Amino acid sequence: MSTRGEAFAGLSVALITPLRDGRVDYETFKQQIEFQVEAGTRCLCPVGTTGESPTLSHDEHERVIAFVVETVAGRCKVMPGTGSNSTAEAVRLTLSAERAGADAALQVAPYYNKPTQQGFFEHYRRLAEESSLPQCIYNIPGRTGKNIEPETIIRLAEIPNIALVKEATGSLDQASQIIAATDLTVLCGDDSLTLPMMALGARGVVSVVGNIVPRDVIALCAAMDAGDLAAARSCHFKLFALCRDMLGLSTNPIPVKAAMQLLGRDTGELLLPMTPLEPEQLAMLKKSLTAYGLL
């Protein structure tokens, strides 16, 4: 089935934001971006949850987006996080990303203030009206406090430049309803659910573990696209323990930043209130990376 956001099918990586002494480390960031481009990653998603958007300043947020767009230079798609629990602020960030040359906008559901379903609808409609960028609805009620119900997303699908959903509810039932009723490109928002979500018709994943092993996630997506379930299962089970630890040992992005530090690809620095792994958690992460063959 053709979907309106098909250009974003495959692997999108939810980039970490590398830090050094409390500031964005752009030299390391460039290396991480080049690593993704060389791997063949379809789309980069800076300043999302994994990119510590809640703790970057607005100036840093906008500069990171511009830097990623400039560094990529058209070699892959860029879909930055530009969402907010203030519709006016989300519009401002989205228009800034559009001026910088982003290809789409990842819009987290308004958080903390817990809008009604009509509130969600009006929020996304306003974003679609104000910006010409394809809009990706990012539904992650575990963080935002409220689910965007499938019926609301189905209504939103009638708006032309709402093109994608990052589906991170963990509910295959919800994903099924959206995929069955719309032509939106659905991207999995939970690494460990990529295979079952793609089996339902999702077109890829916005991945955290892709920061570390993008080629392996690409192989999983390609196997599912090719209908090779045996190969896809093999990829899934290879990735599964790593996915579990990246998102299960502690709050994202704490484990993935620790892993990147262990692999010599990041300082591992976080912005408060995020804090490093405890020693026993770090030992478990090292064991997982070693079992995978990365250490």
Automatic annotation (TrEMBL):
Catalyzes the condensation of (S)-aspartate-beta-semialdehyde [(S)-ASA] and pyruvate to 4-hydroxy-tetrahydrodipicolinate (HTPA). Pathway: Amino-acid biosynthesis; L-lysine biosynthesis via DAP pathway; (S)-tetrahydrodipicolinate from L-aspartate: step 3/4. This is 4-hydroxy-tetrahydrodipicolinate synthase. GO terms for molecular function: 4-hydroxy-tetrahydrodipicolinate synthase activity. Its main location: cytoplasm. Homotetramer; dimer of dimers. GO terms for cellular component: cytosol. The gene is dapA_2. CDD domains: DHDPS. The record marks 49, 112 as: Part of a proton relay during catalysis.
